[in-house]
Design goal:
Layout (H helix, E strand, L loop, with lengths): L1 E3 L5 H9 L4 E3 L5 H14 L3 H22 L7 E7 L2 E3 L4 H7 L14 E2 L2 H7 L3 E4 L11 H4 L6 H5 L2 E3 L12 H12 L11
Parallel strand pairs: 1-2, 3-6, 6-7
Antiparallel strand pairs: 3-4, 4-5
Length: 197
């Protein structure tokens, strides 16, 4: 079975099916839809119980992270999925920022990632910037962002963080670790429990 997880893969899905391959196609846009897609994939491959257990563990881990940050203030956060041109992260990333105890004024959960202007970012005045450039892993030079002429509290404070894109961009269990990293950077000094395996 081939598993595809994005609406941009529609043509690939059609091509694979024409070649006789069994394709399971899902298009989650929010965190809740990611969790539902894991259950659907588990059912499709005959692994309902392990999938249910995995989703239950993920929900518990997200709740633990949210509980750890609920009494903290909620800084404005900017998450950049692509740098040339700058694109603010959408889909489930706004959900993760909320779980981690941040405010995300750039788009709502479920909206696609999109281009963003310098003016829009400056107006929001984010205190933390997370760079998780699609396909780059953690091989992103944060000094490139700091060198921008953007007037941001995050740049002034040196709060430019690089996160492996697989922890925020992929609709997978790794999103738990992504949320934990967001929380630990936004709220220095508080204990963020490790995610449930």
């Amino acid at each position: 079975m081939v598993i595809t997880v994005d609406a941009l893969q529609t043509e690939i899905v059609a091509s694979l099916r024409e070649r006789g391959l069994d394709v399971f196609h899902t298009t989650p846009n929010t965190l809740e839809q990611v969790l539902e897609s894991i259950l659907d994939i588990g059912s499709a491959i005959g692994a309902d119980r392990p999938a249910c257990r995995l989703v239950s563990n993920m929900r518990q881990a997200f709740a633990t992270i949210e509980d750890a940050t609920q009494d903290e203030r909620t800084p404005v956060v900017y998450c950049e999925e692509w740098s040339t041109p700058p694109m603010v992260a959408g889909n489930w990333v706004p959900d993760l920022v909320g779980i981690a105890g941040g405010t995300y004024p750039f788009c709502d959960a479920g909206e696609r990632s999109r281009r963003v202007s310098e003016a829009a970012v400056e107006e929001a005045a984010p205190e933390h910037v997370f760079l998780h450039v699609c396909g780059a892993g953690d091989a992103v030079d944060s000094s490139g962002f700091s060198d921008r002429s953007w007037a941001l509290p995050a740049i002034e404070k040196g709060h430019i963080w690089v996160v492996d894109d697989s922890l925020l961009n992929q609709p997978a269990p790794s999103l738990v670790e992504g949320a934990r990293i967001l929380a630990s950077r936004m709220h220095e000094g508080i204990e963020i429990p490790l995610p449930v395996n």
